[in-house]
Design a protein that fits this description.
It contains 3 helices and 5 strands, in the order βαββββαα. It is elongated. It is 50% helix and 24% strand.
Length: 112
């Protein structure tokens, strides 16, 4: 998902301050020069990338342990069972969280 921010001066610190006020976001951590990681619960998270004229939001697991568990399940059980479990149990919640972050950021940017 992307938000167009042409002709607006938005910094990563502004996005970080806005994200701490969002209702679903539990923790906000800076993971690079232009990247934030917003976590909701034990498995739902999203990454926010700030580019020149756009903000990108990518769905993500919240920890590296979740990645490792998913990849281990793929190695042990094959591709179909873990992928089906992912799309049935985890993906809807991760998608809902990233969509709420997208909507909240979009409204904050339109207000400013």
């Amino acid at each position: 998902m992307k938000i167009n921010i042409q002709n607006k001066h938005i910094s990563l610190e502004q996005i970080e301050n806005w994200a701490t006020d969002f209702e679903d976001v539990k923790t906000v951590s800076k993971i690079g020069k232009n990247k934030l990681k917003l976590k909701s619960n034990s498995y739902a998270a999203c990454r926010v990338f700030l580019k020149k004229d756009k903000i990108y939001i990518a769905r993500d697991f919240s920890t590296k342990a979740n990645y490792r568990a998913f990849y281990l399940a793929i190695l042990l059980l094959g591709i179909l069972l873990p992928l089906a479990a992912f799309y049935i149990f985890w993906f809807p919640k991760i998608k809902r969280f990233s969509k709420s972050v997208f909507q909240n950021l979009k409204t904050r940017i339109e207000e400013s």
